[in-house]
Structures are given as structure tokens and as C-alpha cells.
Amino acid sequence: MKRKDYMLILLVIGIAAVFSYFISGILITTPDDRSQTVEIAEPIASELTRPPADYFNRDAVNPTQKIEIGEDLNQEPFDAE
After folding, report:
1. How far is it, in rounded angstroms, from Cα 55 to Cα 61?
2. What's the CA gap between 59 and 69, in Å, rounded?
3. Whole-number percent of the chain with pLDDT over 90
4. What single DSSP character describes residue 59?
5. pLDDT at residue 61 in the model
């Protein structure tokens, strides 16, 4: 490459740098523009309330127990054929 080629490459790089500097100034906002207002969250209370006795009592259904409806006559659920 000749000296003129190097100068041309440096000129293109310089123009691209100036162009990208101004474009980034337009696209990237300032810290003042980035501020937003948010809701303030309520603190979590450390007290626990008792669950309703209508649902949580000795006679309530236990959802963790296995429920079987009818007899399971099929010992192999899938055909092995």
C-alpha cells in the first residue's frame, strides 16, 4: 500500500469516528433523561395470621394423599407388542 492509501484509510476512520460520536450523543440519553419514578413497596410484616378454619381443619381433604377411583385391572398400562 502506498502512503496515499494510508492517509485515505485514516481519513475514513476519522470521519466515521466523528459521525458515530454525534449519532451516539443523539441515541444515548443523558442520566437526567433516564430517571423514572417508581412505586414504593410496602414492607413485609413479620406477624402471621391464622389461616381460615373453614379450609384448614381436621376434617379437610388432604391433597397430598393418593386418590384411587375404582380398581386397576390392567397391570401393563401399555401394550408391549
Report:
1. 9
2. 20
3. 22
4. T
5. 79
